[in-house]
Amino acid sequence: MDSTRYQDHIANINRHLAPLRSGIPDTLQGFGAMARAAMAPGALDEKTKELIAMAIGVATRCDGCLGFHGKALVRLGASDEEVREMLGVAVYMGGGPSLMYAAHAWESYREFAAAATK
């Protein structure tokens, strides 16, 4: 398995988003504003919100979500224990398909964690 699978994946997504940023700037600016507002600290801190986002990525089987949110969880200092516990809740809520995707989410988080220690 390539040790930078999710890093490459989100870089590729960003490359493909570039023409959308220039072609439909209002839409992407609106999405960005919504993301910033949703993830801003409030009653829930940013790390908790990223854990929720990763769980939803598992439930919806979104590889890009696993990459972006795995990277964010490392930046925010999520522990292995926090990520594993979140994945347990995601599997509980999504059953067998979520269990299979939880393995991918763990891979994403660990990939970014390994890169952060280099």
Automatic annotation (TrEMBL):
<dbReference type="InterPro" id="IPR029032">
    <property type="entry name" value="AhpD-like"/>
</dbReference>
<dbReference type="GO" id="GO:0051920">
    <property type="term" value="F:peroxiredoxin activity"/>
</dbReference>
<feature type="domain" description="Carboxymuconolactone decarboxylase-like">
    <location>
        <begin position="25"/>
        <end position="107"/>
    </location>
</feature>
<dbReference type="InterPro" id="IPR004675">
    <property type="entry name" value="AhpD_core"/>
</dbReference>
<dbReference type="InterPro" id="IPR003779">
    <property type="entry name" value="CMD-like"/>
</dbReference>
<dbReference type="Pfam" id="PF02627">
    <property type="entry name" value="CMD"/>
</dbReference>
<protein>
    <submittedName>
        <fullName>Carboxymuconolactone decarboxylase family protein</fullName>
    </submittedName>
</protein>
